Structures are given as C-alpha cells and as structure tokens.
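Example complex used in Figure S2.
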Amino acid sequence: MKRWWRRGILVFLLLGIALLGWWLFAPGRVQQVPAAQREAEAAKLRDPALIARGEYLAAVGDCAACHTERGGQRYAGGRVLATPFGDVPAPNITPDPETGIGQWSFEDFWRALHEGKGRGGELLYPVFSYTSFTKVTRDDALAIFAWLKSLPPVHQPDREPGLAFPYSVRSSLLAWRALYFKPGVYRPDPARSPEWNRGAYLVQGLGHCNECHTTRNAWGGMEPDRHLAGGTIPVQDWYAPDLGTQPGGGLAGWSGQDIVDLLKTGQSARGVAFGPMADVVRNSTQHMSDADLQAVAVYLQALPARAAAPAPAAFAQVASHAQGGELYARQCAACHGKQGEGVPGVYPPLDGNSSVTGPTATNAVRSVLLGGFAPATAGNPRPYSMPPFAQQLSDDEVAAVVNYIRQSWSNRASAVWPAEVGRLRHTPVD
Amino acid sequence: MARFGRPARARVTTMAAMNPSSPLRWLLRAGVALLASGAGAAAAATDVPDPMQQRVAACASCHGARGEGLPGDAKVPRLAGKPAAYLQQQLASFQSGRRHHAAMEYVVRQLSPDYLRQIAEYFAAQQVPYRRQAAPAVSAAAMQRGEQLVRHGDPSRGVPSCASCHGDTLTGVEPMMPGLAGLSYAYIDAQLDAWRTHQRVADGPGCMVVVANRMTGGDVAAVAAWLASQPPPADMHPVPASVQREPLPGWCVLGNDGVNP
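Predicted assembly (691 residues):
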C-alpha cells in the first residue's frame, strides 16, 4: 500500500516537472535567426576552408566515435550506445537524403546540437551529449555541418532505440531536461586568459569531457557541483577519473606537459590511456592542435583543489598483502618496477597513478584482466603492451595483486574483494 | 637477447622474465633516453634487441613469445610462420568485430593498420619448430575418414581436400592461406564449428563457410583428430602460391557470404 502511495507521489512530481519543462522550453520560445543570416550561412557550406575547419572540429568532438558502427562506414551510425535506461543506436549523419542528414538545413543541425531536438522537433535522448554541445558556437557548428555535408552519403537506415517504458516516450524527457539541461553557448569569462577560455570551451563544450568524467545520479543527470570530478561510466563500467590537478584531484601533480602528452600520444610520464580513453585519444585528441591541447591543459590545471578525502580511520593493508607482493614481483615488477616506478615513456608508473588509486578499483582490476596496448598514435605508433591476466590469475589472485598496488608505496586506497573481480571479469568490453 | 631465446618458458614469464637488472631492461631505458634526447627511432631500434618481442607482450602471454603456441592452451592457435597477410587480416577482423574473441578484440582495438601489419610480419617471420599436439583417441575408421578428407576431400559431398588449398605439406600457402599443421584438435574443431555456424566469416572468399557446412559433425572431429595427430613437418614454411595444385573452386571465389554467389 505504502509503495503505491510513493509511486503516486513520484508520478505527480514528474508530471509537475514535465509541465514546468514544457512551459520553459515550449516550441516558439526559441529565438529565430534572421532570414538573411540563414541564407549567408547556407551559402558558406561549400567553402573548402570551412569544411576543413569542420573536419578538425568534428575530430575534437569525436563525432565518429558514436556515429560509426564498429567495422562500419564512418559517420553512418549504427553503433548501439548502452545506457541504464536502454539501448540507443546512434543515427546516420552522412548526407544521405533518405537515411542520413541529406535533407537537413543548418537550422535543423543547430537545433539538434544546441537544443537537443530532432528535425521534426522531437526531443533527443541525452546520450547525444547536447548537454555539452549546447555550448558550441554557431560558427563552429556551421563548420561541422559543412564537413558532414561534404561526406559521401551512405544509405543506412537508423535502428529503433530499445528503451523501456517510460523512457520510450520521448516527452518524458521534458522532465529530465527541466532538471539537467541548460541550453546556452559558452560565454567567455573576461577575468580569465584567452587560453583558459579556449580550454574551458573545448572541455565543457565540443570535447564533452564531463559526459564521462562526472558523477551521474540515478536519473543519469550530471551533478553540477561535480564538474570533472570523476565518475563511473554507466554500463561500460570504467571509472573516468577526476581531472583536477590540484591537491586532492585525480591528476594531482600532473604538469601541463603530462596532460598534453597523454592527449597527444596516448601516454605520459604519469600514466597511459586505456579503455574508453584510449579510443578518445586515438580518434580525437591526438588530432588536436598543440595550441588547443595546451589550452585544455591550462584549463584543467586551473580546476579547483578538491576537498581531501577523509583519511581511512585505521588504514590497514589487507591480509593478502604478502601474497599480492609475491604476485607483483613475479608478474608485474619487471615492467612496472619494484617500487611501482615504471619506465618513463614505456610502462606507466603505478605509484601515485590515479588509475590505480581511484575511488574504485575498477580500472586497476580491469587493466589486470584485459591488459592491452596503449593506443597507436602518430606520436607513439608502436606502443608497448601489457598481457591480459584473465586467463592466468584467479579472482583471489587478481584481488591480491590489485590490493597490493593500491596499498603499496605512497598509495593508500581501499581494498577490492575477489567477488568484485569475478563481476568485472564478465563485464562486456563493448 | 639471450633471455628471449627460450620460447618454451614464455607463458607466465613474459613480464617476469625480464628481471630489473636484465640487459634488455637497461637497453630499453637507454633506448628511451635516446629517443627523448632526439637521437631518433632509428638509433633506438638498433640498440634494443628485438624490441618487437617486448612490444607484443600482450600477444605472448597466450600465443607464446614467438607465437609458438602454448602447451597448456589448446584453444589458442600457433601464430609463428603463418603467412603475414593472413595474420594481418585476422587482426583486422578482430578489430572490426568480424571475428569474435573478447580478449583479442580488446587487445587489438586501438592499433593502427600499419602496426597490425608489423605485428603480423613479426609472427610470420618466427621460425619455431612444430610441437607434437595431443590428439584424442578416435576410432581407426574416424582417423581414416579424417585422412581421406584432408588428402582427397569427399567429391560425393562436394568437399574439396584441405591440402588443395592449405598446401600438400599443410603448412599453408603464400600469401593468405594459413597452415593447419601444428594446430591443436581443440582449435581446429572449434574453428570448423565456427565456420559451420557463421560465427566465423571471412572478408572473402567465403569458401570455409561452404566447406564446413558440407561436412558432418563427425567429419569435423575426424579431420581435427587426424590433423592434430600428425607428426610435425620439419619445414614449417608456407609453400609459394605457384605450387598450389588447382584453382579455387568457382563457388569459393564468387560470394563472400559463402552461400550466395
């Protein structure tokens, strides 16, 4: 009985929020662009310089990562993005008139990017990161649109989303948008340097870093006070670390050069890109200009210091520490060093590495299980690799060695249980 | 280099084999320092002995340091000496999702086509003697059937012999045909089943889908058992394309889904 009451109240609240959302974002309230400007923009679409700039910006935004199916044609869509609410396939954004964006005007594109609405005015699912892309300037959006329009059209019909009720009803997004979406182009902060502002624009907008590197609540909304403070990527189950470089931040101690190196080559003296970030580096950030990477570094370095995590009342190494140490000496120390110091430029250090000491052991456990190569980039075309240990080590052994590296040298992180290793062993790798 | 001359011990020692004081590690550091000092990749390449072997540690833990396969892992194939173009195509297939194996798919995911080619060439260039495989005890009749299919095929079912494409020595044919010698029963059996059920598909030609579907379950086991029980050939090189006895059958080169031309 009580549960029904609760549900009733919840539905009532949601309806209220939906109405508020409707009132706030109803069609017709959006400012119309003058016809003369629209015509001028349409005339520019074939400008080769604009198209080239659009290609660069599309790489920065990593559009192809979602809008390309594995082994499929670039930008033709089809990749299914799994969310806690169901599967959303990315649409075809090649200029095919029937199945792509061939019939779209720039106004349609702008509305999608800036307002999160489809060509027919339908509300788009926020797995398309318009929560970030809304900050992209109209000029940049025009360049990206010109690039997409210049692509060879691919005839590939979009798949239907596989979402459960009530998420399958697009208007249910009104409530979500009222709570978690604030449309608006990035507004430079005059008190900051142009470089910082460029970095903020790239990180908050086109780069949509926050979409992974923040904590999401049960509704998939991003907590505003947790900007770039790290979070678990839903379903994919990798931990996207806090990007703060000040004390308490996930990248504490990283220099600007470390950040630039990782984004440009896939590895730095401090760590290596793996999991979804390896994909980002390979498809997106390695193609960014040095000036833009530098701006990103300046912005990240200016993120505020994080409140220090409360020190564990009584930090004690787990009982398996000695076993973990033996495993470490046998399997890991040859490359990562006896003291977890790594080999600069080849093998990442484990001492003080946020991928090791993060709030969860997910990344460390999955790296031990999956191994793998650093991404191959122009700056590191023949990367070194780590063996996958899933076949060799039991859940107990993986937990022991991960706990050892999380609790040795200067590392003071919490322990992971073998059962968690067992769970992560079966997490699909997309 | 001396530490890497012991392929048999490679399994769990791919990383551990290099103790911190090993010359390789020292050279690695030296190579890195050279790179950093702007001396260039060429200098590093000459200083680090066989750096490719160290780079592909992720491959070695299952396939052996030189791709020789590992005695304990019957489902993991030997890579050493297989034609480079074949290996490169398989790596690309794992990357694009055409061929399935979760660990393989993750490991090769972020590599460039050029690096995949280099990795393929590294394993193709390895000349490691074949190791005798353990084969299950099957009936004499099954063994005979296996040999019949491998050497002569079964014209009544339209099954060509394995040798007609994979070479009389069964060590493969340049540039694309993989050898069958030295593979385990478990691997051959699993791959034939994967072809039969379309779990494994090729970019084309799609012969193996057709061939495997013309075989019965008993044929698959017989072929796998006979192949795995053969004494390893002394020369593991794939034969040149010029010695291939007969052209591929018409249905083979036509369709790449293996069914519809």
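Residues 176 and 219 of chain A are 8 Å apart (CA to CA). The longest helix of chain A spans residues 2-25.
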